[in-house]
Give the backbone structure.
Amino acid sequence: MRIEDPNILAELAGLQIERQADVSLAELTYLGIGGTTDLLRIRKHESIPALLELLDRHAVTHEFLGGGSNLLVIDGDLPFVVVQLAKPENEVVIEGNFAQVDAAADLGRMVTYCAKNNLGGMEGLIGVPGTVGGALRMNAGAYGTQIGSYVREVKVYRAKERRIETLRGDQISFEYRHTSFAPDDMMLEVKLELPSKTYPEILKGIRLCNEKRRASQPLGQKSAGCIFKNPPGGSAGRMIDELGLKGFHVGDARVSDRHANFFVNAGQASAADMLALIGNVRERVQQAYGVNLENEVVVWNA
Ligand code: EPU
């Protein structure tokens, strides 16, 4: 989708929204798949309600993009524009055991910055790609750590109420790869409360998690991490592996040889290839185990 109306473009400029035309989502996602559209970058949180009101008024549909690490986007000319927070100068501000973090901050960099300030707890999240906002929205977790455990406050744009609100941690429910935020809420800032630990102690934990991850996941390849959530009490990766599906592919969309719940773009995979692979594997798991695997990856397909 391309915004051509000069009135909309003038209003966007007035809101200090930076607009890039014909941006390829293949370049903004870790899977390296996706069509083209306009990208609107927000510099000031305060301009969000007016921006979304403007888009609604002109019937321009939109999607919010975080870091693009857990996302599969359809190909072609996309029927929506993409809205993203610009990176701020100060991503993290620390005060005692609290870290105030911008949602556009890189998750790994945030964990490292806190570690250098002797705040730990999030060692397990070190290799999880993406932004803090994306991690928050789906309660990202690894190696026994979930970001939700440390959340004390979240500043969020509530799409339904069309305003920015600050919620206390106890007003949000954080479950396995799920939160009580509405799908169109936009994470803006989070206050985390983290346990004090020495930097060397945190570094030890970080190194251990990095080693485990390197040993079991296809890190250098284009992927969106785990494709399916684990079913209660089970492991999607183990089930897919047991069915002998490592290396199974549709075009260049391929079940990783290293971890069967990672599907990689091994070349020029299209969104259709990846969706066909996901559907096919889900079907086989359903037939063999009677388990309906739920997507962990977010799919923008309309
Ligand atoms: N397994 C296999 N074959 C495989 C993959 C895994 O047999 O191809 C077995 C493993 O041997 C192990 C079990 O399945 O016994 C679980 O595997 P693993 O420890 O790799 O963890 P996982 O449940 O597959 C989860 C998260 C990962 C996270 C790791 C580490 C989900 C869907 N995945 O994977 O998160 O990094 O634990 O804590 O919850 C993600 O969210 O994108 C993600 C990669």
About this structure: The mean pLDDT is 97. The two ends are 12 Å apart (CA to CA).
